[in-house]
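Structure request: LacI family transcriptional regulator, Paenibacillus baekrokdamisoli.
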Amino acid sequence: MKVSIFDVAKKAGLSVVTVSRVLNGAESVREKNRQKVLDVIKELHYRPNAAAQSLASGKTGIIGLIMTTLQDSFFDAVVKEVNDILEQHGYFLAVSVSQGIQSEESHYLIQEDRVDGLILLSPIEEDNYIVEMKRRKIPYVLIDNQKSDNDTYSITIDNYQGGYTAARHLLDLGHTSIAHLSGNEMFRATSDRRNGFLQALQEVKLEPFEILLGDYDIEFGYQSAKRWVSEGTLPSAVFAGDDFIAIGVINALMEAGIRVPEQVSVIGYDDQDIASKLRPYLTTIRQPGDRIGVAATDMLLKRIAGTMKRSSNLQLAPELIVRDSTARKL
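Returned structure:
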C-alpha cells in the first residue's frame, strides 16, 4: 500500500499541516520537528505526489543541476547528497553536463517553466548562466564558482586554506624543497590553492622548488615528474593541485624506481575515491562533498520558498587526510 502524508504525520506524531510545511521548505517549522519528519519520510520511503504538488503550486517539481563532467567522485558525492535531499522534499533532479554557454545562448534547463531552481556545480562561463537565470527569475545556487563577484548565492571551499594546509603538512615533515603542480587557471580554486601554498612557504622564508601550470589530469603530473627524473633534479616533496595530478607524479616516480614517500613525498587535493585505492594510499586535502550538497540544497529550497530574504555565501573548510604518500624527510 502506498504511503500517504497522513501515514507520515501519524508516525512522526505531528500534524499533517506540519508535514506539509516541511515538504514545502517552510522555515516556521521547529528544527527538531523538521528533522523528525525527514527521518520518518526516509524510514517509510514516502514519495510526495509530484503531479499533485505541481498542480497545486504551479511549479514543475524539478530541480536542475548543471556540471562540467561526470568523471569526478567529488562531484558524485555532491550530486548524491543533493538528490537524496530533494527526493525527501518531493523534487526530481535533472542533471546536465555542459562546458558553458555563450552570451546569446540559453541552456535547455533554463528555458521557460523547465525547472523550479538550478544548482551550478563548478560552472564555466558562469556570468552567462546568471544573466539568463536572473532574466527568467529562476532561483539558483552556485557551487565552487569562479568569480567572487558571483558569491551572492554560493557554496565555496576555502581553497586558500587548503593550499596552506597542504604546504604546512609538508613543512612540518621537514621538507624544504617543495614543488607545486598547479591546475588550469580558468578555475578560481587553482590560484587560491597556489596562493595558500606560497603563503606557508613565505612564512618560513622558503622559495618553491618549482611551480608548474597545467591541466587537472594524470598526464600533466606524469610528464612533469618524468622531466625531473630525466634532469636528475628532484624535489623532496610535491603538492599536486588535485589527486589526478598526484597520481601521475607517483606513477612517473615509481616507474623510475624512486620510492614514495621515502624519497619524494606527494600530497594531492579533493580526496577522490581513487586516492584510497591505489598504493601508496594518497595523502590529500578533502573537500566535504556531502556537506556541500546539503548546504547548496538547503539554500536553494529556501530561495524557492521565498524564505531567504538576503543573499548568502557559505564557505566550508577542507580537511587534511594523512595517508601513506607523505613522510618525514630523512
